[in-house]
Sequence to fold (274 residues):
Amino acid sequence: MTKSNDLKQFWTRGNLHLRVREAMIEANLIDKKLEIEDLFPIDQYHARGIAATVDLGKRMPISKGNKILDIGCGLGGPARYYAKKFECFITGIDITPSFIELGNEFNQLTSMSNKIDLKVGNGEILELEDNTFDGAYSQHVTMNVAQRDRFFSEAYRVLKKGSFFAFTEHGLGPLGDPIFPLPWADSESMSYLLPPEETISILKKIGFTDIEIIKTGDKYMSGYEKLVNKTNDTIPPTLGIHVIGGPSMIERSKNSLKSIKEKRTLPFEVLCKK
Ligand SMILES: C[S@@+](CC[C@H](N)C(=O)[O-])C[C@H]1O[C@@H](n2cnc3c(N)ncnc32)[C@H](O)[C@@H]1O
Fold:
């Protein structure tokens, strides 16, 4: 329980609503109807932003009308992008209540509430029926998950036979021990990285098949470089993931970039089937 409270505090970082409101006022995005694209700079909560969401979308076989699950949906940015692009329905769950509240507000502001339902939940114990979804994805979440086998078994349980599961994460690199604090953890007490081969063997044991893995380290290094350079500018951008991640986001991003360069971490993307 303490672990999940630590995670909620880590991800919320004080008064999230106030930080977002102030940034949106400055960006002139208050009291008007928004397009989902207006929110991309703050609602895609991972280093490569919308580019990573678009890349993952190119690999996922989503059809119009499908029911898709987003595990660790954050502020719902990826869910809004996929729901609009593929005309599918998305259920998103996340352990951080402030992200879910804000994500549902963003759904209303962008008129996406009829396509997306975001709820507080833990990927290790999904409160969802067996064999429900046509596909599931989890973008940059599992680094916080101690019980990987439980997390993946839960995803497997709620998926229909023949459906897909996709996820992205930072695995443990061959030279080990990342440099903290990182975008997903202030210390090793919140970070559970595994070498990619171990993660793949867990997936196989659970029953997932057709496992395809792509290493994304180069893309992440250039994503972090852009992020770090942008936030180093004398006038930082009004909207950006520093609004959600707070001032320490720059230091945490620099450490993540260094960790990839030094082969301490190894970002990758997986697509597999139930
Ligand atoms: C790096 S953010 C990614 C958010 C979102 N997937 C995106 O790409 O914009 C990681 C998210 O994982 C969530 N998370 C961590 N552990 C979780 C768990 N066991 N169950 C559900 N969500 C979790 C955090 O609350 C946070 O929103």
